[in-house]
Amino acid sequence: MLIYASLAAVLGVIVGIAHSVLGERVLLGPLYxxxxxxxxxxxxxxxxxxxxxxxxxIAWSALGIAVLVNRIQDGGDxxxxxxxxxxxxxxxxxxxxxxxxxxxxxxxxxMATAALADIYFN
Length: 122
Fold this sequence. Notes:
Keywords: Membrane, Transmembrane, Transmembrane helix. With 122 residues, this protein is an all-alpha fold. The protein has helices spanning 3-33, 43-72, 78-98, 103-120.
């Protein structure tokens, strides 16, 4: 049954794209438009900060897709279990840091649940 692995993949790509696009528009863009004399005054520091910001987006998308590919290839349970752990830690961290429900954190927890359901039902 590919439904749960497919759900993890689709949500992974959605949350990854949303994190990157909205992060650029709402957080990084305005932050970089401000005049800075601190750490972000240096162009290379800004580039590193931007790259580090986008790494989770890539990881969430790749792990979601990997869960689906793993199921298609009749792989073991280690990959979806690892993905579920990463998704759950990311979601809980998001919710704890913001101290309120946030769509990204909730979607990450749904992804963790989908990855675990993929293991349970296959």
